[in-house]
Amino acid sequence: MLPRLVIHNSISPDGSTTGFDANLDVHYGILGSYEPDAMIVGSNTAKVGTQFFCEKIPPEDKEDFKKPDIHPDDTRAYWMIADSRGTLEGLMHVFRRSEYSKDIIVLVSEKTPESYINYLKERDYDFIRAGVERVDVRQGLEIAGERYGFKLVVSDSGGILNSILLEQGLVDEISLVLTPEIVGKSGTNLFRGIEKSGIQLELSRNEIVEKKYVHLVYRVLKE
């Protein structure tokens, strides 16, 4: 069964996800309020995000080759990273060490390099194989729901993965933190990869946060 899926992102009024300093306390504070079972992110977004965790990629140590001990009361979300090309080989320990992550689950495809699969196995990362050339996100989410009992997944990713999620009709809700800054031509549109038009939304909630940001929540009206 498919988990409920929410897209969450911080954007400028002209729809960009880059070119401004996002308030991470507000962004992740709102995301955490959803209490998701897992967060899903694309490999490119994850790779760019390593700069937020460390200035320089640290070497692996023996603790990076085994799963972390997870307490039954741990409320942190798992991170699901779609990485069919093995983009994050040598970087996974950065995410596993994060205080915000329970552990990492990697979504791969049939064409994922075997060297990358061995890299994941050697370090005891869970992975879900879904799709042939690229990750079949729908199938991956279905397997995650069945295997781990996930009920709610939040996408904290970029335009490519979010566009795929919308086009495939997987999104139930869109949560946007509106930052009062116009980016202009240098911006990166949140849904720049989407080809399908006419996706209808219904505003379900709006609120002012810290007298500067606006949190908008839309329900996706499915056909």
UniProtKB/TrEMBL annotation:
Keyword NADP assigned to the entry: answer is: yes
Kindly tell me the pathway this chain contributes to. Cofactor biosynthesis; riboflavin biosynthesis
**Stretch forming the signal peptide:** none
Say yes or no: keyword Oxidoreductase present: yes
Output the superkingdom of the source species: Archaea
Top enzyme class: oxidoreductase
The EC code for this enzyme is 1.1.1.193
Domain named Bacterial bifunctional deaminase-reductase C-terminal: which ranges? 35-205
Q: Give the GO biological process terms.
A: riboflavin biosynthetic process
**Keywords on this record?**
NADP, Oxidoreductase
Entry GO MF terms:
5-amino-6-(5-phosphoribosylamino)uracil reductase activity
Q: What is this protein identified as? A: 5-amino-6-(5-phosphoribosylamino)uracil reductase
Origin species = Methanosarcina mazei (strain ATCC BAA-159 / DSM 3647 / Goe1 / Go1 / JCM 11833 / OCM 88)
Q: In the record, what lineage is assigned to the organism producing the protein?
A: Archaea, Methanobacteriati, Methanobacteriota, Stenosarchaea group, Methanomicrobia
